[in-house]
Design brief:
- This protein is α+β, with helices and mostly antiparallel strands and about 725 residues long.
- The protein folds into four domains: about 5-75, Phosphatidylinositol 3-kinase Catalytic Subunit, Chain A, domain 1 (Ubiquitin-like (UB roll)), CATH 3.10.20; about 90-295, Leucine-rich Repeat Variant; about 310-505, no CATH class; about 540-675, Roll (PH-domain like), CATH 2.30.29.30.
- Helix content is about 55%, strand content about 10%.
- The chain has a four-stranded mixed beta sheet.
- The longest helix is centred in the C-terminal third of the chain and has 28 residues, at about 515-540.
Length: about 725
């Protein structure tokens, strides 16, 4: 028996009573109704809530929430409330619909209420209300649906025509409080496909695509709301764009990305990055940045050839824009040692097989090449003709330079590996094509200033690599205007001076292509290694100070403020520490409260508490800093949160190291972006060390590593 004295509140009555916390809540309620209050109504209509927060007391949380002297209320149970409300809404006799729906949107957050409400046909009640209501009533009904969808049940019967209705609201509604929940509902629907870890998997992108096809203005309206003065609406709009990007089916992925680019979504996101966004918006911005990184990685590793969709048209477009005449061709051939048919060498390829040369930059390099041409067609044509009229040794090969710049920028943002710890905004990465165009202009500028010859190509490339690194990292350029000014207006002497300083600190070996490819592979391995290490921290478990509420109860017990008659029942509650441990199958988080830390970590059997939901279903949920509620420094407190901002488990990390290990452990477990600079720096440091270890034998033997080598044709 675990008896605890509490203060019971029922209507206007207040009663002191003992509650046996070892009993199921239903039995406790029955005993209170019949023995303490003498109520004649069915005890099943009642439930218990904390008087301070009105949080429902359940079998899962009663031992954590109910402490000595706690004030608890006896109220109508959420199940009874749900049945009454469903009947009222279905009867069409509701006197004040707005008031009822407003009450519903808060009550439906509780699983017990939501389950009972759905069993009474509540989902169809909400959908019918959304179709019929307007103004605030419509906003409350949509919010009720959004809150229902935070549960993993009860919303698997949403119809296609209702999804179309939601898309119409996004396009035509101007009320912010209507557009917010409508957008939130669409996010949940898009994510509920076969890849979802939840039970509802019957929606996905295909359902939304039908609605978008019927509403052509849907995407323009969504992208336009990124500039909304309502911060939350802009945040939700970006979250929906990200969700669609991650769940779009392969047949529509290309179309969707082209539409976003046509609507200028990347520059809209750049502007948001430069407005000092809050934490939640920052997460969505980093998610978008990571989506673009994966897209660029996929394009770079998409090998191009005459049969690659769209590739031949892109390359032919570059050739036509060069406007090379027969006389230009004749002049170039007279000053060169070329033999055979000549076409692609005229625009800077080294051979007449451009597809083979572009295998190192893939489709991304071809897109960059075409973008430079389109940025100023006349300038491009003039550039090509100017180079052809130079001696063969003095020509700056446009195509080769363009591919080199693509490779250089890929190294700057880890595009080759596709892995990059997203802890800081990289707005210029979003407009990589424009950055490529500017950097290529700087390449030609440096070539002319150095009066370079073909054999100096690697020297010019090294100078630009140093210049780009300094511009991005030392000067911290975040806008295209700043980047263009720094790249194109910095005197050559300054660029050269910086490069010499870099050479004093760096090994030229690390700039070789083969070494860069090695580094990309080792970066991926380092990322996976650190990911496994962080997750292993969760599985091994660790001691944390108990959250403030538990510690306060322990202090009260230690201070002798508990009645001696019931003090023994609180002995197990004098807890100052918690031990958390992730189950070996990585689905549940177990924890227990202890009076002191032990040298031998507790086993899972010794940890009575378990996360109310499996960790594997937390994709719409995550880790969030918690300013209060812990005994450690506020910066090291965090919580596992549900999608409706409810805390599942609170943590008070003792130091920054434990905070980084556990927050990024959960983030990596959920395949989310890491959030701590410590973890990002660890991955980078590990990559650098392992790279240099791999190169020790090469350096010792003084082997020559080529800048580029032809790869054999795939069998």
């Amino acid at each position: 028996m675990l008896a605890t004295q509490v203060e019971l509140v029922y209507e206007s009555r207040e009663v002191q009573c003992l509650v046996d916390l070892s009993l199921p809540v239903d039995e406790i309620v029955r005993a209170i109704c019949l023995e303490q209050l003498g109520l004649r109504e069915e005890p099943g209509r009642y439930a218990l809530r904390l008087a301070s927060t009105l949080e429902l007391i359940t079998d899962d949380n009663i031992r954590r929430k109910v402490t000595y002297g706690e004030r608890i209320r006896l109220v109508v149970s959420p199940q009874a409330e749900a049945r009454d409300m469903a009947k009222s809404l279905q009867s069409n006799t509701v006197g004040d619909l707005k008031k009822q729906i407003f009450t519903l949107k808060e009550a439906i957050k509780e699983p017990e209420f939501a389950e009972a409400f759905c069993q009474m046909g509540g989902l169809h009640v909400i959908m019918d209300t959304v179709r019929a209501a307007s103004g605030n009533s419509l906003a409350y009904a949509l919010s009720s649906l959004a809150n229902l969808m935070e549960h993993d049940f009860g919303w698997d019967l949403i119809t296609d025509d209702f999804i179309h209705f939601l898309a119409m609201l996004i396009v035509h509604q101007t009320l912010v409080n209507v557009c917010r929940p409508a957008t939130a509902v669409l996010i949940k629907l898009v994510c509920a496909d076969a890849s979802s870890s939840g039970h509802i998997q019957c929606y996905g992108y295909a359902k939304l695509h039908q609605a978008m096809s019927a509403e052509p203005a849907f995407l323009p309206a969504l992208v336009g709301r990124l500039g909304s003065t309502d911060y939350v609406l802009a945040q939700l709009s970006l979250a929906l764009i990200n969700s669609v990007s991650m769940h779009v089916t392969p047949e529509y992925a290309g179309w969707y990305q082209m539409e976003l680019d046509r609507l200028g979504v990347r520059k809209a996101v750049m502007r948001l990055m430069q407005l000092n966004p809050g934490e939640e918006m920052g997460k969505h911005l980093l998610d978008f940045q990571q989506i673009i990184l994966r897209l660029q990685h996929r394009l770079k590793h998409t090998q191009v050839g005459p049969t690659t969709p769209g590739a031949k048209e892109l390359l032919d477009g570059v050739w036509r824009a060069a406007r090379v005449t027969d006389s230009d061709r004749q002049v170039a051939e007279e000053t060169s040692s070329w033999t055979g048919d000549v076409q692609w060498r005229l625009i800077g390829f080294e051979t007449e097989n451009p597809w083979k040369e572009m295998q190192r930059v893939g489709l991304l390099g071809l897109i960059h090449m075409r973008h430079y041409v389109q940025s100023d067609v006349d300038h491009f044509a003039k550039l090509i003709i100017e180079q052809l009229n130079r001696s063969a040794a003095r020509r700056c090969p446009y195509a080769r330079a363009s591919m080199e710049i693509t490779e250089l920028l890929s190294d700057q943002w880890n595009i080759g590996s596709g892995y990059a710890p997203a802890t800081t905004f990289q707005p210029l990465q979003l407009v990589l094509e424009d950055v490529h165009t500017t950097t290529l202009l700087a390449f030609f500028r440096a070539w002319n200033h150095m009066e370079a010859a073909v054999e100096d190509f690697d020297k010019v490339s090294a100078l630009l690599r140093s210049h780009v690194r300094y511009t991005l990292h030392e000067e911290g350029c975040t806008s295209l205007f700043e980047f263009e000014r720094a790249m194109l207006e910095t005197p050559y002497e300054v660029m050269r001076s910086r490069q010499l300083k870099d050479l004093e600190q760096e090994d030229d070996l690390l700039t070789k292509l083969a070494v860069r490819n090695l580094r990309e592979r080792l970066y991926r391995e380092s990322y996976e290694f650190v990911k496994q290490q962080r997750i292993d921290c969760l599985v091994r478990g660790a001691w944390f100070p108990a959250p403030a509420t538990v510690h306060a109860a322990a202090t009260a017990v230690a201070g002798g403020n508990i009645d001696p008659g019931v003090q023994g029942s609180h002995k197990a509650r004098r807890m100052a520490y918690r031990f958390y441990r992730l189950s070996p199958n990585k689905k549940y988080l177990h924890y227990g409260e202890f009076t002191e830390m032990t040298a031998e970590p507790p086993n899972l059997d010794d940890l009575p508490e378990r996360g109310e939901q499996t960790v594997s279903t937390q994709q719409p949920q995550g880790v969030a800093p918690k300013p209060g509620g812990g005994r450690g420094p506020p910066a090291f407190n965090f919580s596992l949160m549900t999608g409706n901002d409810l805390s599942l488990v609170d943590f008070a990390a003792p130091d920054a190291t434990r905070f980084a290990e556990w927050t990024d452990g959960f983030n990596m477990l959920l395949d989310r972006n890491i959030a701590n600079r410590d973890t990002a720096d660890l991955i980078m440091s590990l990559t650098e060390v392992v790279t240099r270890v791999h190169l020790l034998d090469v350096a010792a033997e003084k082997l020559e590593i080529p800048g580029w080598c032809d790869l054999p044709t795939q069998p």
